[in-house]
Design a protein that fits this description.
Elements: E1 2-5, H1 10-21, E2 27-30, H2 41-44, E3 54-57, E4 60-63, H3 65-77, H4 86-115, H5 122-140, H6 153-163, H7 178-186
Parallel strand pairs: 1-2
Antiparallel strand pairs: 1-3, 3-4
Length: 202
C-alpha cells in the first residue's frame, strides 16, 4: 500500500491518522507541493486532479481523503468505524460531506492563506471558518463524538482542520466544547500529532 503524501497537508494527515489508529502498514511517497510536483504529468497520471492524498493498494487507486477514509475503514476498520446500516452510514457520511465542503472552504483555506501566504483576503474565509467551527462546537455540546456516540471516520475527517484552524487565524478560545473532543481523539490508541496541531493537555 502506498500513500502519496505531504507532511503539512491536513487531508493527508487524516489518512495517516486513520492508518495509525487502524494499525495499517503503508509506504509513504512524498509529493513536493511547494514545487508543484502534483501538477506535473507523472502525478496527474495517478490523479488527474493534481491533489494529494492518493492511496494505491494492490491495483486499487483512491483519491480524495474522504474516499480514502471510507476505503480504509471498510477494508480494515469494520462497522465500528464505518457502519453498514443505512441510518448509521448516512450519519457518518453527512460529516464527511461537511469535511469536504465547510471545513475545506473554511478552516483549511484560511490556514492555507495565512500559513503559506497566499495572495487572498483571509477575512471572509476566516468568517466561514468560524461558522464551520461553531457547527462542530454546537453539536459537541450534546455529544462526545460526531456520529453514533462513538469514534468513527466522521471524527477523523473533521478533526485535522479543526485542530489546525488556529494556524489560519481562528482563535480556539471561542469554542468551549472542541477541546474535550480533541482530548478524546488524542486518547485514541494510535493517535499522533502533526506539526502545528492544537494539543489539549490532560
Amino acid at each position: 500500500m502506498k500513500l502519496y503524501d505531504h507532511p503539512l497537508s491536513g487531508n493527508c494527515y487524516k489518512v495517516r491518522l486513520a492508518a495509525s489508529i487502524l494499525n495499517i502498514d503503508y509506504e509513504t511517497v512524498p509529493v513536493d507541493l511547494m514545487s508543484g510536483e502534483q501538477k506535473g504529468d507523472d502525478f496527474r497520471a495517478i490523479n488527474p486532479l493534481g491533489q494529494v492524498p492518493v492511496l494505491e493498494d494492490d491495483g486499487v487507486v483512491v483519491r480524495d481523503s474522504q474516499a480514502i477514509l471510507v476505503y480504509l475503514a471498510g477494508r480494515f476498520g469494520g462497522p465500528d468505524w464505518l457502519p453498514g446500516d443505512p441510518a448509521g452510514l448516512a450519519e457518518v457520511m453527512q460529516w464527511l460531506s461537511f469535511s469536504a465542503r465547510e471545513m475545506l472552504e473554511g478552516p483549511a483555506l484560511a490556514r492555507a492563506i495565512v500559513l503559506f501566504r497566499r495572495p487572498d483576503d483571509p477575512a471572509p474565509v476566516q468568517k466561514r471558518a468560524r461558522r464551520a467551527m461553531a457547527v462542530l462546537d454546537q453539536h459537541l455540546a450534546n455529544h462526545d463524538w460526531l456520529a453514533l456516540e462513538r469514534p468513527t471516520i466522521a471524527d477523523l475527517a473533521c478533526y485535522p482542520y479543526a485542530a489546525l484552524a488556529h494556524q489560519g487565524g481562528v482563535e480556539m478560545g471561542e469554542y468551549g466544547h472542541l477541546p474535550g473532543w480533541f482530548r478524546r481523539i488524542q486518547a485514541l490508541p494510535g493517535w499522533f500529532a502533526q506539526k502545528g496541531i492544537y494539543e489539549v493537555a490532560d
